[in-house]
From TrEMBL, chain A:
Domain NADH:quinone oxidoreductase/Mrp antiporter transmembrane: 23-286
Location in the cell: Mitochondrion inner membrane
Organism domain of life: Eukaryota
Protein name: NADH-ubiquinone oxidoreductase chain 2
Source lineage: Eukaryota, Metazoa, Chordata, Craniata, Vertebrata
Predominant place of localization: mitochondrion
Automatic annotation (TrEMBL), chain B:
SUPFAM superfamilies from the UniProt entry: Galactose-binding domain-like (SSF49785)
Entry keyword annotation includes Amino-acid biosynthesis: no
Coarse class of the protein's main subcellular location: mitochondrion
This protein's name: Complex I intermediate-associated protein 30, mitochondrial
Organism: Hippocampus comes
Residue ranges of every copy of the NADH:ubiquinone oxidoreductase intermediate-associated protein domain listed in the record: 84-257
GO cellular component: mitochondrion
Length: 346, 283
């Protein structure tokens, strides 16, 4: 794509999220979300394949519906209570509709069905932007609202379970990452009303881990489990490290991904929600199963030729490796710093 | 001057309302209102519920074994898969045979099981006289198309052939040039006739012919017109496959198919056989 046009879209993405971050009026926040949607749509459709066009259409329709729900909820609240401030969303109907709208924006179950199809139709870079950057703005709004809802906890538990269960049936990597995103967002929303700072920590760590996974897949130029199994010939070092990244996504100690889950479970038990904590921890096992399956396919088995493309052999890659190296380090080694992070963010 | 008094329920009972405007030639005109066409059977209903609930339970539980019901090792090592095999009369239920008889032409096509119930036999007569409706100019085709696979409660399911890259058929034709049409899943309504096609040149004769066609050779056509903006066939959502004959040669035809499978040809590394007209290709 023409670099000027590409820079317009990327700067538009940055602008939209920044506007939502800095806004205290609902209309300005909504505008930031709309700028984000509109800026990413051409990036999604740039390949003009029918599947990409389908993905961008589905994304546009769902995000526009969510934006309409957000606008409706905020204007209803303004009509009833006269408040346009983001943290003054006090009427229960408005806050419920607002929550549903923001849930549709981020792909929380049961409003998650668009996410696997949309991610499947995108190339890896755009999928990365959609999984990580597009989640920031709605989360900033969610964290500023004071929500006190059992609907939210229900949606969160459903997300973790659906994210785990749905990912078990997939062989395409982008759909696996979509279901992993649904599960992680479930974990984030679970603790939103008790400790928003924990949500922020989980979101940041999730973004680093997803960044490293997408960069890994881009480095190997792979989109399915079968072609992922050939990464041993392209780059043995990253093949040896990537099970750790996947296990970090699954939430195993002593890797970074364990930290947020641990903190969330301890927060839930402090709030006396032991049953919910148990259910969520058990559904994290489902996600762990498909992460383990990916690491099994990639590293723990030396598969025969499973792709009909000519094998690459340890060529020096022309892509920038800085993203992969930094995000891998962050997603593997941050657990000892967890007390410091909790102190800073709390 | 005659006053035409219409019955009160005339808009409900008029023939154009109870039947749609187009009547397939050869079908008798049915004048029954919709409430008389219901055929209610309690045991069939129960059978249907049981079948769908079993399918639903199987869908839920097969994930424990692995993706799409197969263990991950089997999925990774799978090199060939037989998708359609004709071993009994229920295998013919998965196929739909059509010819230009539906638009008023005179070709005929029938499908039956071949010898020893091991093959399927598509035979008939092709006649390219156009139907006399004043607007059709060309005619003379017949085809056999697989039905879309259905999950529980008649939801659409797709074939996932991402691990494969070549179509492998064992056919015995009669020397005519057939066309293989693969229909993938589309989203917009104007894409519903988007079909990827390629040719199948049969050799005739008593010997079986093994045909291997890579999926990279399939080109995109819409209602028979080859498109300028080509792209490779995405194999993760295939709906149907079909065989069409329309070679303007009147007379009898036959095609016998033993099996239709997909294989992973390691020697075939081409991604797409036709020019993509990329303006800024990555080097």
């Amino acid at each position: 794509m023409n670099p000027y046009i590409m820079s317009i879209f990327l700067l538009g993405l940055g602008l939209g999220t920044t506007i939502t971050f800095m806004s205290s009026h609902w209309l300005l926040a909504w505008m930031g979300l709309e700028i984000n949607t509109l800026a990413i749509i051409p990036l999604m459709a740039q390949h003009h394949h029918p599947r990409s066009v389908e993905a961008s259409t589905k994304y546009f329709l769902t995000q526009a519906t969510a934006a309409a729900m957000i606008l409706f909820a905020s204007s209803t609240n303004a009509w009833i209570t006269g408040q346009w401030d983001i943290n003054e969303l006090s009427h229960p109907m408005s806050s419920t509709i607002m929550m549903l709208g923001l849930a549709l924006k981020i792909g929380l179950a049961p409003l998650h069905t668009w996410l696997p199809e949309v991610l499947q139709g995108l190339d890896l870079t755009t999928g990365l932007i959609m999984s990580t950057w597009q989640k920031l703005a709605p989360f900033s709004l969610l964290m500023q609202m004071n929500l006190n809802n059992s609907v939210m906890i229900t949606m969160a538990i459903m997300s973790t379970m659906i994210g785990g269960w749905g990912g078990l049936n997939q062989t395409q990597l982008r759909k696996i990452l979509a279901y992993s995103s649904i599960a992680h967002i479930g974990w984030m929303i679970l603790v939103l009303q008790f400790s928003p700072s924990l949500t922020l920590i989980t979101l940041m760590i999730y973004i680093f881990m997803t960044l490293s996974i997408f960069c890994l897949f881009k480095m190997n130029k792979t989109t399915s489990i079968n072609s992922l199994a050939m990464s041993w010939s392209k780059s043995p070092t990253i093949t040896a490290l990537s099970p750790l990244i996947l296990l970090s996504l699954g939430g195993l100690p002593p890797l970074t991904g364990f930290g947020p889950k641990w903190m969330i479970l301890s927060e839930l038990t402090k709030q006396d929600l032991n049953m919910i904590a148990t259910i969520t921890a058990l559904s994290a096992l489902l996600s762990l199963y498909f992460y383990l399956r990916l690491s099994y396919a990639m590293t723990l088995t030396l598969s025969p030729n499973t792709t009909p493309i000519t094998n690459q052999w340890r060529f020096n890659t022309k892509q920038p490796t800085i993203h992969l190296s930094i995000s891998t380090m962050l997603s593997l080694m941050l657990l000892p710093l967890l007390p410091g992070i909790m102190t800073i963010i709390n | 001057y005659i006053r035409h008094h219409q019955h009160l329920l005339h808009p409900v009972l008029s023939r154009s309302v109870t039947q749609s405007e187009y009547r397939r030639p050869g079908k008798p005109r049915e004048d029954k209102p919709p409430w008389q066409k219901i055929n209610f059977s309690f045991s069939k209903g129960l059978d249907g519920i049981r079948k769908h609930l079993t399918l639903l339970k199987k869908e839920f539980l097969e994930r424990w074994v692995g993706p799409q019901g197969k263990p991950i090792l089997e999925h990774m090592l799978e090199q060939n898969r037989v998708v359609w095999e004709f071993r009994g009369p229920e295998s013919l239920e998965q196929w739909t045979v059509s010819s230009d008889f539906e638009i008023g032409g005179q070709s005929e096509a029938y499908l039956k099981l071949g010898r020893n119930n091991t093959t399927c036999f598509l035979y008939g007569t092709l006649r390219s006289t156009p139907p006399k409706d004043g607007e059709t100019r060309y005619s003379g085709y017949c085809s056999m198309r697989s039905k879309q696979p259905l999950a529980s409660f008649d939801r659409k399911q797709h074939h996932d052939w991402t691990s494969f890259n070549t179509l492998h058929l064992r056919v015995r034709g009669d020397g005519r040039p057939w066309m293989i049409n693969i229909a993938a899943e589309t989203y917009f309504s104007h894409q519903k006739d988007d079909i990827y096609s390629y040719f199948l040149y049969t050799r005739g004769g008593p010997y079986w012919q093994e045909v291997k066609i890579p999926f990279s050779k399939f080109f995109l056509a819409h209602r028979g017109r080859v498109q300028d903006d080509q792209h490779p066939l995405w194999l993760d959502k295939i709906n149907t496959i079909g065989f069409t004959l329309g070679d303007k040669a009147d007379g009898p035809f036959q095609l016998e198919i033993d099996y239709i499978g997909v294989i992973k040809d390691y020697a075939h590394t081409e991604e797409f056989a036709y020019e993509l007209y990329k303006r800024n290709p990555e080097v």
